[in-house]
Design goal:
The chain is an alpha+beta fold and 175 residues long. Helix content is 37%, strand content 33%. The longest helix is centred in the N-terminal third of the chain and has 22 residues.
């Protein structure tokens, strides 16, 4: 098997692990999946880098995240706080990924997918049941970087897909 195929499979596994950690509400695992500024590049890359490249890595390694309807979050603290907030306020979430495409170029990988999300919040009253389930369609782009610890998430950008209403469908139909 070629390295490129292996890389694609490894990125697919890292991408799946990201969504599974969210579904389980496993904040520690989710945190481990994100790129850390202290994470070193692959050993083979160290020889090819000069001091100027190394100095710029601090800025390059800053992670970012855009949740649907949120502003851009930059830096490990902001991004991880957002996931802690989401996990604390979501009783149930499940992702069904479709249209998953993975591309690898050197030490960077790009995953695009459609997140078919089913989620539920706390019950409206102090009852023991889950609140109403809500479905949402979101398109996402996840960017990964290769590190000595495997592929780590560098950026996640998710945007809602706007559904057509019955009124909009009728506008294109001649009367």
């Amino acid at each position: 098997m070629t390295r490129a195929r292996t890389d694609v499979e490894q990125v697919e596994l890292a991408n799946t692990a990201f969504y599974e950690a969210l579904e389980r509400g496993d904040f520690d695992e989710l945190s481990d999946l994100w790129l850390d500024a202290d994470t070193a590049p692959e050993p083979a890359d160290l020889d090819a880098r000069d001091d100027e490249d190394a100095a710029e890595d601090g800025d390059e390694a800053a992670i970012s995240c855009v949740h649907p309807g949120w502003p851009v979050l930059t830096g490990r603290g902001e991004v991880l706080r957002s996931y802690a907030l989401i996990m604390a306020n979501t009783e149930y979430i499940q992702f069904f990924l479709t249209d998953v495409h993975v591309g690898v170029a050197g030490d960077t990988a790009l995953v695009t997918c459609t997140e078919n999300i089913l989620s539920g919040g706390p019950p409206p009253e102090a009852g023991g049941e889950l609140g109403p389930l809500v479905g949402q369609l979101v398109v996402a782009t996840n960017v990964f970087r290769r590190t000595v610890d495997g592929w780590k998430l560098w950026s996640h950008h998710a945007s809602p897909v706007l559904a057509e209403t019955d009124d909009e469908e009728g506008e294109d139909t001649p009367s």
